[in-house]
Amino acid sequence: MGELLLAQAAGCSVYMMASSQERLSLIRQCGIQAVDRTAFPQLSFCPERYRAEEEYKRQYQESENAFLNFVAQQTNCRGVSIFVDFIGRPVFRVSLKSLSRPGVITTAGWKEGMDLAVVRALECMNWHTHVHTHYARYAEGIEAVDYAEKHGWLPRVEDHMFGWEEIPTLAHEHSSGKLTSFFPLYKVNAA
User: Fold this and answer.
1) CA 16 from chain center: how many Å?
2) Looking at the structure, do residues 93 and 175 belong to the same domain, yes or no?
């Protein structure tokens, strides 16, 4: 979200996708154009299922086409200039397809998969730039926190802090969508 707020401050048109009403509301409160992920219910690409299951393939293509049509409407058919992807494999295919020419896809983290496949020749012909990063050095992090404090960007701290033994519960609640926080907390030592 910080990246989008910086882009917005620089005059860019920014969008952020989420599936929970709480996150969509937060996105709107920040002045970012919220995209409801539930409008594209089958937009989770699995190459194995795509090859093996005709119904899955049909449903996926419907959601992918709906998303690409949405992008075309929002960008006057130009595509996305910069796509920030923190999910990975399930959305990587459609993210690449939605990019402009030239376009940048930046990825960090691997919430749903670290292994990403590309056809390098197509990426070259489309003038796509891939930037894989995992944020910053320590000193840059300190600067970022200072900036966040000055601009009111610090995240809301959750009321509940998971104990070390509750990490499986945290993981389950996060993966099932029950936990909607961007920043769930857990403690290593009970002391």
Assistant:
1) 8
2) no
